[in-house]
Request: fold
Amino acid sequence: MSSELAMLPAVALLKAYKQKKISPVEVTKAALAQISRHNEKFNAYCFVDEAGALAAARESEQRWQRGEPKGLVDGVPTSVKDLVIAKGWATLRGSKVVDRNQAWNEDAPSVARLRENGAVLLGKTATPEFGWKGVTDSPLTGITRNPWNPEMTPGGSSGGAAVAAATGMGALHIGTDGGGSIRIPASFTGIFGIKQSFGRVPAHPLSPFGTLAHIGPMTRTVADGALMLTVLSQPDDRDWYALPPDGANYLDKLDAGVKGLRIAYAPTIAGAKVDGEVAVLAAAAAKRFGELGAHLEEVDTQLPDSARCFANHWFPGAANALRAFNAEQRKLMDPGLIGIAEQGARLSLMDYLAAVKEREALGVAMNMLHRKWDLLLTPTIPIPAFKAGVEVPPGSGQTRWPDWTPFTYPFNLTRQPAATVPCGFTKAGLPVGLQIVGPLYADARVLQAARAYESIAPFKMPAL
Reply:
């Protein structure tokens, strides 16, 4: 029974709390039981605050008994990725070189908004060191594993959050996404994730990877993602880049559907190769939008290859992240992170500025594409999950994680909203994701499309 309770979505929990059918204490204990049951195997959490979570749950229970919930997510078990600061908890960023003996007296905007709205914060989820790569392992916390097959990676860098969502270790999960780090693990673990328009969710401190970096929801259902985004997008003056608050409740009109929308399906971007099973599943999922009343067409986007442009933003970002650490400290760090940081540090200013101009051109190209198409669909990742503990698929000949994520990082460069929905399984039983991309600031439209697909193809979580 506790595992069933742990798998209930947040919107169902809130309804049951209001009707006094279940208690936040029961639900929190169920989530903690899932952590106790499964975390050793999958390594989703790197820190759990059981006492703090139960205390918060008891306070929430009292509020619900009085009929006075604190906010939109009162009593919902929630996790925080270990790149995002939270008051009273060490934020070590998957690294041995971050000093845990600090004050830790501030919440990031996303954590503050969730806490203000009554969320029960369970603990911190695992990340690769400083969130630098698309899989989740680090010198500090080891290897995080996929709940569909523990031999496989859950992706990254928000791999801990994805595993926690898929296994019922909480209902709401803060992820970050600088090149796909919400969408990659959401695709590999079969959950929902959205990287909303840049600036919609305030961030502080700002990422060393600059304006590529987003903070967003990872959940088991689209409605929970919409609920969480409603909370996360509330304003915070600490983010100079934040968009003006619009007061949107993303649950409003979530079931508006896609009837009449013009939707393009791109089987690939810039000629990137796609695994055969992934190609079939993603194309079949795209066709379902035609059944939902959209005008669907397969297209060649004619978008440029943005791999070099992304690398010339991401690698200097890694150099920026490591600038405060000395040679002795660097010996304790992930060699791959050191490698891309050294490469980024060698990039000339003129080459970086050329990448900025390439980024601008890509953004304009996507604006032009969306003059014709309301949404763009692609496979989220061109391959299924591969062996855990390595950066690239064994035998692929690839060298760095962006080599196998060609459909995610372009939309960090362009700042557009992009979500992933699970769209089936390979013969080996590994999830595949379909990416839904909208024009800048069309976050609600992306959520509505994801919900429309979910309504005819409900998501399935692993049976553990």
